[in-house]
Amino acid sequence: MNLVSADQNVLNGLHITFIGAGSIAEALIKGLSETGMSKTAYLHVTNRSNHERLNDLKATYPIIAHSDLRDAVLQADILILCVKPKDVHSVLPLVARHARADALYLSVVAGCSIESMRQMITSVRTDSGDPHIVRTMPNTSCAVRESATAYTMSKSCTTRDQSRVEAILHAVGRTYELTEDLLNAVTGLAGSGPAYVYYFVEALTRAGVDVGLDEATAYALVLQTLYGAAHMLRASNETPATLRKRVTSPGGTTFAGIATLKQHGFETAVRQAVIRATQRAEELGALLDEEVQV
């Protein structure tokens, strides 16, 4: 695993086209804008039918909006595929048909393997050799530029491709290079992870109400507690277990609370949630791969 930093200058003068204008696309556009990269790179956006969405993005960010896919794709150095998994089989071949032979494909499509994308591209292109493809898995925290984003590259990708990908993804959080066989695990852990945390916050807030706090106060206390604990973990060189044990005095209040969590299978439930989410990512990926073979 590599935690990488990015050289923003590698995007200077490049044309970057977003295929799809949903929340992940907007988060990336926002990140590139806030880090200043949109001043030296050209950001293009297109989607299938929602022109009102394009106009909203154009009014908010320094982008070039396209209602025509061909116009958006023709001069792109980097194509960022931000469509839903159910749409990738119809959209990617259209994109590839008009793309430059040396374009870099960066996919945030959940479950779609590099090999599936390669087959979709080469089914309509015979002049691009082995296409340069990067598959990535951000999470929803990219909206506040705090995503834990994993990515993997096709064998055809170059060090220049990697530098460009890191610059884009680093604009919305921290970036980790992994092998493709681990991306489903990343989906189950970090991709779904924010939802697990939100669920925990819901439960902890309700618990605060159960012991007499009003909901607003309980929620505020939970958020600050979570924020402080996360900062402690990042700032400290000690393990989570060490930090936990330090505040868990035998016979004390935290000891009683942790014992109750253990009694009700807290750790088992969390681990099983990640395992099941990973399995589901594998199942959905297999369905996508089967559709490519049809």
Automatic annotation (TrEMBL):
Domain Pyrroline-5-carboxylate reductase dimerisation: 180-284
Pathway: Amino-acid biosynthesis; L-proline biosynthesis; L-proline from L-glutamate 5-semialdehyde: step 1/1
A Gene Ontology term for the protein's cellular component: cytoplasm
Subcellular location: Cytoplasm
Keyword field contains Protein biosynthesis: no
InterPro entries linked: 6-PGluconate_DH-like_C_sf (IPR008927), NAD(P)-bd_dom_sf (IPR036291), P5C_Rdtase_cat_N (IPR028939), P5CR-like_CS (IPR053790), P5CR_dimer (IPR029036), Pyrroline-COOH_reductase (IPR000304)
Domain Pyrroline-5-carboxylate reductase catalytic N-terminal: start-end pairs: 16-111
Keyword terms, alphabetized: Amino-acid biosynthesis, Cytoplasm, NADP, Oxidoreductase, Proline biosynthesis
Catalyzed chemical reaction(s): L-proline + NAD(+) = (S)-1-pyrroline-5-carboxylate + NADH + 2 H(+); L-proline + NADP(+) = (S)-1-pyrroline-5-carboxylate + NADPH + 2 H(+)
SUPFAM superfamilies named in the record: 6-phosphogluconate dehydrogenase C-terminal domain-like (SSF48179), NAD(P)-binding Rossmann-fold domains (SSF51735)
Principal location class: cytoplasm
EC number: 1.5.1.2
Gene3D superfamilies according to UniProt: NAD(P)-binding Rossmann-like Domain (3.40.50.720), ProC C-terminal domain-like (1.10.3730.10)
Top-level taxon: Bacteria
UniProt GO BP: L-proline biosynthetic process
Gene Ontology MF annotations: pyrroline-5-carboxylate reductase activity
Pfam families: F420_oxidored (PF03807), P5CR_dimer (PF14748)
Role of this protein: Catalyzes the reduction of 1-pyrroline-5-carboxylate (PCA) to L-proline.
PANTHER family in the record: PYRROLINE-5-CARBOXYLATE REDUCTASE, PYRROLINE-5-CARBOXYLATE REDUCTASE 1
Family per similarity comment: Belongs to the pyrroline-5-carboxylate reductase family.
Protein name: Pyrroline-5-carboxylate reductase
